[in-house]
Amino acid sequence: MKNLIIGILATLVLAGCSTDKGTDVPQATVEEQEVLFSVVGQTFYNEFIPCTGGDDYSREAAEEMVAEWRAAGLPGDILGAWGYEPASENNQFPNGWWELQWTTKEAADAGWQQWAASEAAQAWSTKYQSVMTCDEANRVSWDFHFARDPYGFGELGESGEFFAAYAPCNLNEGKTMADVDGAVAQYNGWLDGLDASTVDFYAYGIYASNAGSDDSVDLFFGNFHSTPEAMQAGNEAWMATGGEAKAALEAAMTCNNPELHNAKLFYDPSNPDFS
């Protein structure tokens, strides 16, 4: 299957910007602290680009492609990049995805201009065009934020691999994102009550709709575990003991079955040699 998401081809369009609100976590600003993709309470512009493998696709070629992408001179304002490979035949979308995170749309636009003007970037794009094809016209963007420390249950493993579930959600009648924020605060309280020693790794993020999003969905609730088995155990614990927090989230929004993906961190500017 050639659906491993990799890569920002130079033919892709980078975009991005947003503003969003956390509830129980004060909004961070660029001036207040170093901006990393893991900052809690700050809204970023995250973009998903659908990608499929070309005639010369292989895991080895894809890994080489990503490594050379990082070495080609990335725009300095890229905060993170992740790859997603479909892990369920029930996913709505059969393709893979490449996710990029930026501080603002202006930063993304400037970054793409820099990339487009780079001879190294153009050479890289030409070299790997038969490995990966990405559909720039159908990219989507979301206003993303972490409402809780993504490393509160430990660091991501050395491989950078994790298992992701993206649940598409719509606000219930009469509800707003403020109601979601309030319910998320209760969810954080439930998470705080868990025995952290029993959780290998868990993080979650909220992707709110913006002008570049799928207008049929108000938000995606992204859950990130170390493995599918860890996700199953977490879901069982939530169903059994979620209580008032579960009721609050269900009162604020209705979520459908999640898109399941094998995922990997491809770029972390605070640790550029991670991969």
Characterization of the model:
The chain is an alpha+beta fold. About 25% of the residues lie in helices and about 25% in strands. Strands 1-3-2-10-6-8-7-5 form an eight-stranded antiparallel β-barrel. α4 packs antiparallel against α6. The protein is globular, with a radius of gyration of 18 Å. The two termini are about 25 Å apart. Mean pLDDT is about 85; it is low at about 1-35.
Largest sheet: 8 strands, antiparallel, barrel
Largest sheet strand order: 1-3-2-10-6-8-7-5
Q: From the alpha-carbon coordinates, what is the Rg to the nearest angstrom?
A: 18 Å
Helix content: 25-40%
Helix-strand pattern: EHEEHHEEEHEEHHEE
Q: Based on DSSP secondary structure assignment, what is the total number of beta strands? A: 10
Classification by helices and strands:
alpha+beta
Features:
275 residues; alpha+beta; Alpha-Beta Plaits; 8-stranded antiparallel barrel; 10 strands; globular
Helix and strand topology:
Layout: E1 44-53, H1 59-71, E2 80-86, E3 96-102, H2 105-116, H3 119-127, E4 132-134, E5 140-145, E6 161-171, H4 177-192, E7 202-209, E8 219-225, H5 228-241, H6 243-252, E9 253-255, E10 259-267
Helix pairs in contact: 4-6
